[in-house]
Amino acid sequence: MAEEGGRPAPEWADADHSVCGILHGYRDGHSLAERLGCLGWRSRSSSWHGYEAGTDWCEFALEPDGQDVLLNGVVAPHRFDDLAALLTRFGVTYTLELYDENGNLVRETHG
User: Fold this and answer.
1) Rounded to an integer, what distance in angstroms lies between the CA atom of residue 47 and that of residue 79?
2) Above 60 in pLDDT, residue 4?
3) How far apart, in Å, do the first and last CA atoms of the chain sit?
4) What is the model's pTM?
5) Which domains does the chain have, with CATH numbers?
6) Is the pLDDT of residue 22 over 90?
7) Most buried pick, 13, 31, 64, 66, via CB within 10 A?
8) Bigger pLDDT: 47 or 60?
9) pLDDT tens across 69-111, in order?
10) What is the DSSP string of 18-75?
């Protein structure tokens, strides 16, 4: 799977397809953002405890909630499984949901 740190493709940057998730047992998003950065993704601190990460097919924020890290952003719908596979490869326990442009739940996966 190729990871590229370019800006999101225009069709996904403004898309209403959203991805939401929970990274179970993570206290902050720093380690995941750092690992994605090592793969060439854009990653940066966005607040005291939050991070943003993205590539040309996915962009999301990572915000701790005290027990877990919440993931919210956009993903190219045909790359939803790639995001799940990447989290699995990193050993992350997660729940991910994909919503369409009308806010309807399209897919859900756990890892």
Assistant:
1) 27
2) no
3) 18
4) 0.84
5) 10-110 (3.30.310)
6) yes
7) 64
8) 60
9) 999 999 999 999 999 999 999 999 999 999 998 899 999 999 9
10) EEEEEEET-S-SHHHHHHHHHTT-EEEE-SSS-EEEEETTEEEEEEE-SSSEEEEEEE
